[in-house]
Amino acid sequence: MSNDPLVIAVPKGRILDEALPIIRAVGIEPEPAFADEGSRKLMFETNRPGLQIIRVRSFDVATFVAFGGAQLGIAGNDVLMEFDYSEIYAPLDLGIGRCRLSLAQPKDLHESHSLDQLSHVRIATKYPHITRKWFADRGIQAECVKLNGAMELAPVLGLCPRIVDLVSTGHTLKANGLVEVETVAHVTSRLIVNRTALKVRAQEIGGWIEKFRAAVARSDAAPLRAAKG
User: Fold this and answer.
1) Boundaries of domain holding 94
2) Model confidence over 23-43: pLDDT tens digits?
């Protein structure tokens, strides 16, 4: 296993745009095809011999790392909470991908439907595990309807009166007549590691963890230096 390539899994989309400066700051530069939006490649070489990078859906990063397909990855703590893989160790908050997982509902939902008066709710969400637990902690049984997108349509079309979804600016909620009611969790992206790989390749993977830690510390200090200047 120690002679196998080290694989880092990263998520597609907005988080990748924020993660790339940190990845480059630790000395990893993906091959040119990585930046080619027309490329159909999924695995890419880097400037580091024996270090490869894969680009997958955000929810799949945790699965690849948990089952050993990748040894390191970058994943939001929303994904980590939803799957709760015991095989994953998350040693570092990268401070990127900031958003929140929120409960939202139509702004004109009748007061008789107030949460503190309910024992059962139906929720549309991509996060059934987190949602059920959050409501259970408040003594409410949550019936979750699993959707992977267009969550805001569920109340509009009468599928569910409420949703639990990621919110950044809140513009999409507002455009569809919804308002945030509660924050379920604050979300940032973390560096994650396969626990078994960390034991077997402690020096190698531990070294990368420290490089990421130093890169995040430098990026956190940069605004302070700019302010003083």
Assistant:
1) 6-98+187-228
2) 999 999 999 999 887 788 999
